[in-house]
TrEMBL record:
Residues 149-158 have a biased composition (Low complexity). This is DNA polymerase. The keyword Hydrolase does not apply. InterPro entries: BRCT_dom (IPR001357), BRCT_dom_sf (IPR036420), DNA-dir_DNA_pol_X (IPR002054), DNA_pol-X_BS (IPR019843), DNA_pol_B_palm_palm (IPR028207), DNA_pol_lambd_fingers_domain (IPR018944), DNA_pol_lamdba_lyase_dom_sf (IPR027421), DNA_Pol_thumb_sf (IPR037160). One of its GO terms (biological process) is double-strand break repair via nonhomologous end joining. Keywords: DNA damage, DNA repair, DNA-directed DNA polymerase, Lyase, Metal-binding, Nucleotidyltransferase, Nucleus, Transferase. Belongs to the DNA polymerase type-X family. It comes from Lactuca virosa. The lineage of its organism: Eukaryota, Viridiplantae, Streptophyta, Embryophyta, Tracheophyta. Residues 111-180 are annotated as: Disordered.
Amino acid sequence: MAPKARKNRSPPSDPDGIFSGMVVFLVDNDVQRRRLEIWKQKLGQMGAIIEEEKLSQNVTHVFAVNSDSLRKKFGQKQLQRFKGIILPYQWLEDSLHLGKKVNEESYTIHLDSSQNPLKNSSNENSIKPTDVKESSDNQLHPHKKLKSSPKTSEGSSSEMKDKSLDEKVSAPDASLPYHPPDLNRDITEIFGKLINIYRALGDDRRSFSYYKAIPVIERLPFKIESVDQVKHLPAIGKSMQDHINEIVTTGKLSKLEHFESDEKVRTISLFGEVWGIGPATALKLYEKGHRSLEDLKSDDTLTKSQCLGLKYFDDIKTRIPRDEVQEMECLLQKAGEDVLPGVNVVCGGSFRRGKASCGDMDIVITHPDGKSHVGFLPKYVNHLKDMKFLREDLVFSIHSEQGTDSGVDTYFGLCTYPGRELRHRIDLKVYPKEIYPFGLIAWTGNDVLNRRLRILAESKGFRLDDTGLFPATQGSGGKRVSASTSLKFNSEKEVFEFLGFPWLEPHERNI
């Protein structure tokens, strides 16, 4: 039975919640105040009693960023006397996401034997993780390997058990790792292919079901070896369980193999690779009898943009060497300065992530004065056309002057490397300075990272997209309603830190 609440404790909102019976103390060292308040609120709503003032004998659980934050808060003798469990905030994040308490033994914080201020058993090595498996450095990405430097930041849940927590495992400025390494890429990659196939077939319901399942599986701190491990997870129904069972048993999925050998699926997927042709249009073209790209050339229902996508299909599919992208980024920056001195032009996407080649160019633009970006894009596009760099237009929309869509101006088109006729896809996005960090994050990617950041934001009561981070509340009928004004941040790093995601340099975001 939980001890009675005293004056310095916050009583639980739901005494039967998933954290009922827990009396918790939250170590505030190295934690942002706003994040701490969110955790307190969630714990209290779900049955925990919050001990606000001191580490009393009634406390059953202490949450901290890492061992360093513990040492800052408590002395060695006080930690030695504590008989409860000390957990990283990651345990709380994962429990909230799954809707149930996850295995504490896979997260418990231990200090090294030389310090030895805390042990939850007589032998530090007696508590073994039951689910978390060893993984390669690649699997541990995006969390960096632990180093002895005090500036080392990222660590995974499994690393916490194998490395001394005398070393830091929090992100810079005490941001908390949000998720364990993706140990189940074999499953998520297959599900990703099924998303695209069902999307191409126009089956949004099934496509969305796999889309919801992927982040649940990505967040697991263990390698799935039996379907019994996922039977009670959200978004993993009976059909999804059967797929997972087949994958972990055979290493493949017969459903995917059937789709990949099916003429209709292959044809619709091919049509969907033409720029401007979406799943619904691709299906209609197939139903009209078209079976090849050559067939599409005679279809008079295609829009101008779709015709351009078809005409330059092979060009657009040709990847661009990194050195050429770098030269074009310099060209774009210089052209921008010609139109508006001081403008900031950055090539995002796989180029900013350090890849050797790029499928297209994602250009993110702003001006540091916060106002000169208005009206810049039309002048910039005209200048680039005069230079014979931009060749064909696909989409051109101006919002900064009307004040809509957060004032983001957009141009999608085709360009050529100087002296060549080979077309490349290029996107220009002009952001107001105040939301520029969100544009950089979104257009740098990759997709996995962006999805994880969005889900993390949702778990904290926000909506994240390329135009901002918006507080969200429950409206009438249980629908989530987002505020119209975003929180303000000066850099990508500040956004990562606020969300509690370990800071990743652009070249570290290929996860």
